Amino acid sequence: MKNKEETLEDRLWSKAVNEKSYKSGDTYREHILEQYKIYVEMADRISARRNLANTFFLTLHTFILSAIGFSYEKLPILSNIYLLTLLLVAFLAFCYTWWRLVKSYRQLNTGKYEVIGEMEKRLPASPYYAAEWKALGEGKDPSLYKPLTHVENWIPLIFAAIYLAGYLLMVLPRFWPYLLK
Prior knowledge:
This protein has about 180 residues and is mainly α. It has helices at about 10, 25-70, 80-120, 125-135, 150, 155-180.
């Protein structure tokens, strides 16, 4: 016998608790609404944490680039190719961590909003899933809406490219005499 694949609806709603198991159907619906409010608040907090992480990394990379620009001609330490390589690896690791965090928050929010959409099926209105998200073309039509995470994904990659280009501009001139032979 083949097992029926569980749907999101099957996993979301408890089989042991339903409107009939409550003394009042009104109380049951109130509890669904309260759980919905809490869950929407949790999704909003994930977005706030994502924004805080973006602010942290943007500030960090702005500071790094400013420090490099300020100290480029003033510190002989930047002439050490081994140190430059170590710094490049560290900066690229920061970029990868930032990129991965953005991707993780995107995946987490996608799941949360799927659950919100499923919960809205039991509410009188479906403002997010059936209305707003559909009106925005589900993020698939950039002329209607371009999800922020699509833009956010590029920022760490741009910083990584800047670091790599800066590294090459600082290191390659040292090797030109050897490369031109």
